[in-house]
Amino acid sequence: MTGSGRDEAIYRNLYAAIVENHLEPGTKLPEDTLAEAFGVSRTSIRKVLQRLAYERLVDIRMNRGATVAQPTVKEARDVFAARRIVECGAIAQVVARATPAKLDELRDIVRREQDAEARGDRRESIYLSGEFHVALSRLSENDTISDILAGLVSRSSLVIATYGSPMSGSCRHTEHHDVLDLIAAGDAEGAREWMERHLREVERSVVLLEENPSAPDLRRILDDVAQRQRRQP
């Protein structure tokens, strides 16, 4: 395998491990450990980590190394807001270009999602939920939209892993059947409204706490001030 092919394989391996939540947010990614695991140099690992950092799936900090990214509350909300803009905006093109054969492919993803949910496989269920949304966007035949959404869906998985409760974050497969029915009927506005509502419900299912500053320890502050006052002549 060529150097570029090897780096791509390592990238895909780490990408899947992060997006499918096998590596939790905050997990350290030491270059030496990864280099040994993949049998490559630290230089190769560094290039892969930089690529993942560019996609905001990995954080790299000076003298602290790389870790799986932990989205802030603002970043989490920004991701969902961006998804609403992209997915709702693309739905008219999706409806215009959808065919029975393409919709059947999407229904197959929904069936696999249902099976994963029945098995209690949360990781697989969340992964297939995201895959459904990306595959749906591909019906628009706009590669730029699909590429943008794929990145947003990947970051959504980190949001869910960071803030979600054990049962949150995954779309209900029955809802996915609903949008396919609307698309099959050619109801672009109904599908757009469904997508807007659906994505807001998914966002609400993830526990996003406000990043308010912690309340000051008033007694300690006042005691410190009083002590300084007593020491003054």
TrEMBL record:
<keyword id="KW-0805">Transcription regulation</keyword>
<dbReference type="Pfam" id="PF07729">
    <property type="entry name" value="FCD"/>
</dbReference>
<feature type="domain" description="HTH gntR-type">
    <location>
        <begin position="4"/>
        <end position="71"/>
    </location>
</feature>
<dbReference type="InterPro" id="IPR011711">
    <property type="entry name" value="GntR_C"/>
</dbReference>
<protein>
    <submittedName>
        <fullName>GntR family transcriptional regulator</fullName>
    </submittedName>
</protein>
<dbReference type="InterPro" id="IPR000524">
    <property type="entry name" value="Tscrpt_reg_HTH_GntR"/>
</dbReference>
<dbReference type="InterPro" id="IPR008920">
    <property type="entry name" value="TF_FadR/GntR_C"/>
</dbReference>
<keyword id="KW-0238">DNA-binding</keyword>
<dbReference type="InterPro" id="IPR036390">
    <property type="entry name" value="WH_DNA-bd_sf"/>
</dbReference>
<dbReference type="InterPro" id="IPR036388">
    <property type="entry name" value="WH-like_DNA-bd_sf"/>
</dbReference>
<dbReference type="GO" id="GO:0003677">
    <property type="term" value="F:DNA binding"/>
</dbReference>
<dbReference type="GO" id="GO:0003700">
    <property type="term" value="F:DNA-binding transcription factor activity"/>
</dbReference>
<dbReference type="Pfam" id="PF00392">
    <property type="entry name" value="GntR"/>
</dbReference>
<keyword id="KW-0804">Transcription</keyword>
